[in-house]
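Why does residue order matter? Because the sequence determines the fold. Keep that principle in mind as you read this record.
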Amino acid sequence: MLSIMGILVIVTVIIAIDVPPLWRKKLKKELWAFSILLLFGTVLGLAQALKLKIPNPLDWVIAVYKPLSDMVDIWLK
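Structure:
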């Protein structure tokens, strides 16, 4: 529970520091990108704090390229 509160406090501090200058300069696209990336990072951090199983992106890359690798291996033999 303490780790979840810590993550949320850190996210709040990051928002308090980074959002006002973006808002004043009317950088809406940058603010959207910042918000989406911060949300993604916060969700992953909370999932890790809750000890949820987070899939490894490398497994997805292997699943996509494994058939191609097998085909090339067969051709080269």
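The chain has one domain: 2-76.
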